[in-house]
Amino acid sequence: MFDCVVISYLSIMEVSHFFDKGFAADNISITSVSDEDDRAILEENQDYSEQYKDLMRDEGNQLDALHQYKRGWMQTFNLIIASVALGVFIYRQK
């Protein structure tokens, strides 16, 4: 039973993508905050925001690389099949 839950959870994780709901530092200017504790929290939040954007960019690059890899192999297989078919047609005409 738990195996099914884990498998279904993993299949959901493979398809799902990050959804950006924003960070507090994206909406509030850090220089306008007067309290030092609040400013430190917002600076940390801004760091998380930048790391999150980097992760989003890296995830997109990974998906693009995976797509290009699969596409390259499909083109290779298509070229092999076409070459064999062309060879058979040339052989039969002789």
What does this structure look like?
The structure is a single chain. This protein has one domain. 81% of the residues lie in helices and 0% in strands. The chain is built from three helices and no strands. The chain is rod-shaped.
Question: Characteristics of this structure?
Answer:
about 90 residues, 3 helices, rod-shaped, mainly alpha
Quick overview of this protein structure:
With 94 residues, this protein is mainly α. The chain has helices at 2-15, 24-27, 36-93.
**Percent of residues in helical segments?**
over 70%
Please report the number of helical segments: 3
- The low-pLDDT segments are 1-13
Major sheet description: none
User: Which word captures the global form?
Assistant: rod-shaped
**Gyration radius over CA:** 26 Å
Q: What oligomeric state do the depicted chains represent? A: single chain
